[in-house]
Specification:
This protein has 176 residues and is of the alpha+beta class. It has one domain: Umud Fragment, subunit A (Ribbon). It has two helices and eleven strands, in the order αβββββββββαββ. The strands form two sheets. Strands 1-2-11-3-4-9-10 form a seven-stranded antiparallel beta sheet. The chain has a four-stranded antiparallel beta sheet with strand order 7-6-5-8, with no helix packed on it. It starts with 9 loop residues before the first helix and ends with a strand.
């Protein structure tokens, strides 16, 4: 008994090789451009957590009711719809937020310092009393369907201290 070798047509071989490659490539592109959002850090607002020039991946697929304290998000700036804000959530709807001598209070309790990286050691301009302009902030209550965002580099970061609470509809990505 001899086994005869069957010749597999070239077309079948090509399909067997190219079809899985095409499916894999399509899936990879879908994930890269629809699920994950590669973001190049263009400023120092989130230093030292994120260094200028680094690329971080954010996802657009998330539930806004699952956003929590400490999550890093990207939102459309309420002052300029062509600009974006990247910052950490420190307040949810109904929370009261204040800053006293650089300590952040949420509902009267100091936020865990581990939530924030070590403060910047850069030289910053001082106001006449010898404090920075962002060392203190009066209490603010976060409105419904809004979040209070705070940049890690508080000396130069743009966040809810200047923009006010950010509406949840303006948040479009969360750190992966």
């Amino acid at each position: 008994m001899s086994m005869s070798k069957q010749k597999i047509p070239l077309k079948t071989k090509l399909i067997a090789i190219l079809l899985p490659m095409g499916i894999g490539l399509t899936f990879a592109l879908f994930v890269k451009y629809k699920v994950l959002l590669p973001v190049s850090i263009s400023n120092g607002y989130m230093e030292p957590s994120f260094k200028q020039g680094e690329t971080k991946y954010f996802t657009r697929w998330f539930r806004k009711d699952n956003l929590g304290i400490g999550d890093v998000v990207i939102a459309v700036s309420p002052s300029d719809p062509n600009s974006y804000v990247m910052a950490r959530i420190i307040g949810k709807p109904g929370d009261s937020i204040s800053i006293q001598k650089r300590f952040v209070f949420r509902n009267g309790t100091i936020l865990d310092p581990a939530l924030f990286p070590e403060p910047s050691t850069q030289t910053i301009p001082l106001i006449p009393q010898g404090k920075t302009e962002h060392d203190d902030m009066k209490e603010v209550t976060v409105p419904e369907k809004s979040f209070f965002l705070l940049a890690d580099n508080r000396e130069i970061g743009v966040d809810s201290r200047t923009l006010g609470p950010i509406q949840e509809s303006q948040i479009f990505a969360v750190l992966w």
